[in-house]
Structure of DNA-directed RNA polymerase:
Amino acid sequence: YLRRCVEGNRHFNLAVGIKPGTLSNGLKYSLATGNWGDQKKAMSSTAGVSQVLNRYTFASTLSHLRRTNTPIGRDGKLAKPRQLHNTHWGLVCPAETPEGQACGLVKNLSLMCYVSVGSPSEPLIEFMINRGMEVVEEYEPLRYPHATKIFVNGVWVGIHQDPKHLVNQVLDTR
């Protein structure tokens, strides 16, 4: 049907081209088994994509929802992927990890960690420039030796003389 529509330069109707049962059954299979992919090609599908949510206690449910998985083989004896890196400070819980082969490969986000949706940095930088931030290219260390550095998404974008006031303005606008 798709080939005929493309070759004949006709409009493609999704309801006619794909049976609704095919999509529904595929999603049901993938969510039920955790194997993401075609049911007939189970060997090439990705395993462990979906899991049953742990509901034993409220704390175990929160822990299960905040779990991250490092996608490397469990049987390897590599130590580096299992260790916490300095950049994980405040983001990953240093104590909670399973025992056995998955030790250190399954990590949990810390309780106060907040994951935000990515957004462009330019509007925020323009907002702060209009509120007295000096961009890093124009910064003179001798003129402002005690200025506070401002980072946006890990990039040093400027300095400010009154950081508390700037933070309050950004939070009020948010």
Notes: The helical segments are 2-7, 14-17, 20-33, 58-65, 122-130, 163-173. The radius of gyration is 25 Å. The CA atoms of residues 2 and 102 lie 45 Å apart. The chain has a mean pLDDT of 86.
